[in-house]
C-alpha cells in the first residue's frame, strides 16, 4: 500500500519530527476497515501474558492481524493505530512489537493514551486499527 496513489503520508516540516508514526494520512476512494480495540485474549478468551506487556502486545497485534486477514487486508493497509496502555512509560516495549508488524518506512498515524484500567484487571494494553483497501 505504500506505493498506492490513493494514500498519502504527510509529515510537514513545520511540525515536530516523528518517531514511528505519521502526522497525517490522506486516503481517497478506498474501502475502510475499522478494527475494534483488541486486547490480549486468545481464541479461547483467556488472557495471554499476565503481567507481561511484551507478550500482551504481541497477542494484541496477532488479534489485529487475524481481523485484518478476515477482511482481506494486512498491516500494509493500516493507516491509523490507537494505543491504550496502563503505563505509558513502557511505550518503548509496545513500539518494539509494533515495528514487527507495521511498515516502518511509512508508519500509520498513531495516538497513545494512558488509561487507569481496561475491561479486565489483568490487561495492560488495548489497540484499535483503521485500514483501507481497494473498493
UniProtKB/TrEMBL annotation:
It comes from Brevibacillus brevis (strain 47 / JCM 6285 / NBRC 100599). InterPro entries: RutC-like_sf, YjgF/YER057c/UK114. One of its GO terms (cellular component) is cytosol. GO terms for molecular function: deaminase activity. Belongs to the RutC family. This is RidA family protein. Signal peptide: none annotated. Gene3D superfamilies: RutC-like (3.30.1330.40).
Amino acid at each position: 500500500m505504500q506505493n498506492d496513489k490513493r494514500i498519502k503520508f504527510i509529515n510537514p516540516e513545520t511540525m515536530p519530527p516523528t518517531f514511528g508514526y505519521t502526522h497525517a494520512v490522506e486516503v481517497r476512494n478506498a474501502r475502510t476497515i475499522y478494527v475494534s480495540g483488541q486486547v490480549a485474549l486468545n481464541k479461547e478468551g483467556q488472557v495471554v501474558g499476565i503481567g507481561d506487556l511484551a507478550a500482551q502486545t504481541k497477542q494484541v497485534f496477532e488479534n489485529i492481524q487475524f481481523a485484518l486477514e478476515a477482511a482481506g487486508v494486512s498491516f500494509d493497509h493500516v493507516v491509523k493505530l490507537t494505543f491504550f496502555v496502563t503505563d505509558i512509560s513502557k511505550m518503548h516495549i509496545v513500539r518494539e512489537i509494533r515495528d514487527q508488524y507495521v511498515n516502518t518506512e511509512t508508519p500509520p498515524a498513531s495516538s497513545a493514551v494512558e488509561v487507569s484500567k481496561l475491561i479486565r484487571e489483568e490487561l495492560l494494553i488495548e489497540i484499535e486499527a483503521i485500514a483501507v483497501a481497494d473498493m
